[in-house]
Amino acid sequence: MVPDMKSVSTPIAILTSTLLCLLLSGAVTAQQADIGQESLAGSWAGTLVIGRDSFDMTFNLTRDEDSFNAALISRQLGIYGMPAESVVLKNNRITIRLEILAAEYTGRLKMDESGSEIAFIDGEWFQEGEMVPVILRPAESQ
């Protein structure tokens, strides 16, 4: 028995439309991620407050072809460009690991109103079992 062309073309049309929508939404998501990643390169500064002490800290982020590198600067702690062992960027979250300090900074990238630039990074500094909130902003706006 030969299938009716009308009954065959309807599922194919639905499948084609669904695949096209998925491809387009993936392209938009990838484009938005690239915009955020482009604006991530640079210096990001914040204040680490532990008890009564506060320390200015800056992460200098540079981008290679597919990855980021980070270096920590904190004048009060005598740190001038300590390289991070790893920088992981996934789903608008960044994790910077500094194994020599047994520390990690994890934050969520927060976009500006236009959605084209990162306005700030809302994150936490983890060290020796303690978590301290630290908001990083572009160093120029500090």
Quick overview of this protein structure:
The chain is built from one helix and nine strands; from the N terminus they run αβββββββββ. It has 142 residues and is an alpha+beta fold.
SS-derived structural category: alpha+beta
**Element pattern in H and E:** HEEEEEEEEE
Tell me about the largest β-sheet: 9 strands, antiparallel
Assign the CATH superfamily.
Calycin beta-barrel core domain
Q: What characteristic shape results from the CA principal axes?
A: globular
Q: What's the CATH first level? A: Mainly Beta
Number of domains: 1
User: How many DSSP-defined strands?
Assistant: 9
Determine the N-to-C terminus distance.
75 Å
Determine Rg (CA atoms, Å): 22 Å
**Treating each run of at least 4 consecutive H or I residues as one helix, how many helices?**
1
**Mean pLDDT across all amino acids:** 81
Strand neighbour order, sheet with most strands: 4-3-2-1-9-8-7-6-5
Estimated share of beta-strand residues: over 45%
Q: Which fold name is given in CATH as the topology?
A: Lipocalin
Low-pLDDT segments, ≥5 res: 13-33
From the structure provided, what is the oligomeric state, counting identical versus distinct chains? single chain
Helicity range: 25-40%
Which CATH architecture would you pick?
A: Beta Barrel
